[in-house]
Specification:
By secondary structure, the protein is mostly helical. The protein contains seven helices and two strands. Keywords: Membrane, Transmembrane, Transmembrane helix. The chain crosses the membrane at residues 7-26, 46-65, 77-95, 107-128.
Length: 137
Amino acid sequence: MKSIISYFLYALLLFGTLLLVSYIDFRLEIIAKQDYRVWKWVTIKQFLYIPVGFALAFPYVVKNFKKDGNWKFDYKKIIFFGIPALCLTFSYTLYYHSVLGIVEIPWWIQMDGAVIELGGALLGYIIFSSFFKTEKD
């Protein structure tokens, strides 16, 4: 019964976060279309989906809290997975604000806002799951 309640609470956290983030994104898009300040919306959108990744990694972190040991940080995961996710999340900014346009980004990334959403969720998951506890010997 305890696991059913914990799964239910986790589902509430995950889907609640996703619904809240989607609603904020929807409202910001409407505001951006009304006052023609698209960059404000795009900038906020790049950070908006990172908490979804935090919610996805939440069970992993809870399991680590129950362990005895010291907290460690997996820097290899950040280098090999976090940096590419960071580039996907901030692809609009990298493309439109790069020095003299030297960063070439494929057209399918430039045109699709879903890349920002997926990259943000991946980035949040990678950051949150990079912290772990080592077992005491």
